[in-house]
Amino acid sequence: MGDLVPGVGSGKLLEELLLSRERAHRIGAIHRLDYERAVVLTHDRWKFEAGGIPQFCFLLATARNTQGPGGDDDEVLLLRVEGTAALSMESDLFAVREESLRDALSAVDDPSPGVVLDVSLDPFTRNRISFTGLNCRILGTFYEDSDTGRPQLAWGHDVDNFYATATYQVYKPLGEGLSQIASYLKPDPGHPVDKVRIGAVRYASTRRRERAAKQPPAPVQVNVYDFIGHKTGMFGMTRMGKSNTMKTLVARTFAASEQQRRQGRAPVGQLILDPQGEYANPNTQDGTEIAAIGQEHVLIYKFGAGRREPHVRPLGFNFYDDRQLDAVQGVIAEALADSTADYIRAFTAAEYATPLRREDETEGEYYQRQDEAARGRLILYAALKKAGFPVPRHSAREARYPWRAAVKMTKKLADALEAANSTVHLDRRTHSWVGVPAEALETVVDWLLEQIDADPGAIEGLAAFSKSNAWKAAVPIYTQTHGKRSVSGYTKLQRLKGFHQPSSLEDYRRHVYEALLKGKIVIVDLHLGPEGVVRRLSEDCAEYLLEQQTEVFTDGRDAPHIQVVLEEAHNLFTAQRYKDDLDVWVRLAKQASKLNLGMVYATQEVTGVAHQVLANTKNWVVAHLNNRPEAKALSQYYDFEAFADAIVTSEDRGYVRLKTMSSPYIVPVQVDRYGPDLVNEARRAAGMPPLALIPIPSRGERDGG
Known about the structure:
This protein is α/β, with parallel strands linked by helices and 705 residues long.
């Protein structure tokens, strides 16, 4: 009689990768099966010998005949254990146990629980009640495919056929077999692949049986190109390992970028906006820092930075550079946003930077606005000097020349000013422009104010100052008087001195972007300074990045790949904010993909991120969340619903549920700790010698994992 289930292929690849004795341990058979779920029949002893069957454990079900020919040997079903299931005769088994206990109670003199419940059952009865059922979800099917000309492991998200339940054998994958499953990537000929380790499979918080069975860890590898150019969400409470995972991805991305560089392709830059300073500074738990990858590859911008370390640059602006005044004015406006005084609002609204030409104005009107802005800058610079902002020694445009404040002034007015002030020597320039030296700023402004108060028409050109909106708006800031009352004036600016960098020759954002184009890791340390100003600086940085990438894109060129790492995403991508198409973070979220901007965002609040952002997130890293509404929101995506309870109850650092762009299912992972080993891998990729490794405790030693 012929085999009822004839073989349809060799099955060698499935045997080698998944079902060999070294890679899988048989734990039972299929009890019930349909297209979505399966109930696995197993026994207590089989579970013990397999090192336990924790919840979310992967299992393999195959209809192949391991003892001889026949059977469907080209397919293996991948199952995930989600709970227990009642067996057909389970009620009868309960009755058998109850009967045994009743008999024991009648047969002994001592009716205490320790005597009755611990009575030994006969082997036959004990075996009968030792069978249990596992309720499993069918994730899909592994099968062999030869479309490319050679056999390869292929994947389908469903089941295209099933047989009688007695046909199937069920295995628990171990070691390399489990790693093959956890690291499986869907074939995609158009998508580059560079598999890198991110951690090891971890099914449960409790890991005693796994360790007691001495089962080898199953490494989990991901395709680093899943993250480059795509959105990645990091979800979890503080101190649950989000930052560690971020650092790991940064190091892995850097290594991939260096490989691209060696192949003659453009590298990948990485921009980290760091609100807490945890990426810019050494971490005693890690035993290292991102900067350890190499000072020539990592730049850090921070407030108050000196010149002691070549890779640490000052974060801020030269408040006396007219080319940086747009950004400076934004910082000032943000810092003074909480003030309701009319003179403050007028001051922050005035135009001090050299304006852009409007389409609806004449050339004469444009030059008039240009002149008014320069007059406003003169008194603004004087107010800054009064507030204690150091004036640069040299010109930002030409370092060999001393700093001067350029302003339009008639010859008669300039002559009168110098005649009345013997210490003032103006730098006479063409077209009625003069340069006011730093030491003369306050003297010049005081004299002009005095003459305007006396008679603005007394000297030719003096009235132009009195009529300039920018000049008038800055007067109360400089004089500390508004109308007939005293005001705070320039003292309100003093809290911004930490953001002033006299040595800055250009807007730091341009240097950041140029470093990103070279494949560097740039960390902008924002943990110092007023919250509003820090927020403005991060927005300005993102705005500049978008502008530069958009310019390249609209020119018909491929925009360079740049990764942006963001913390506190629930403050950046709220549903309400997402309605504002002009918001820089909304634009980043909407335009990132076409501009080759990968975005890695972290948050404690899934509900705080607009669903449009979540729906376009390709990679998900989910650590512990402490409340069910957040887990419920997460459950709307992929099949995170199955893990919702465990995500809320398991508080193990670095224990995440991972879904990547190329992986067809969620994998529970203990993420590797970022440390010296990973740093040295990144250094090797860049052709640099390794650093001396600092012994650091394992994750288990540190947090009891």
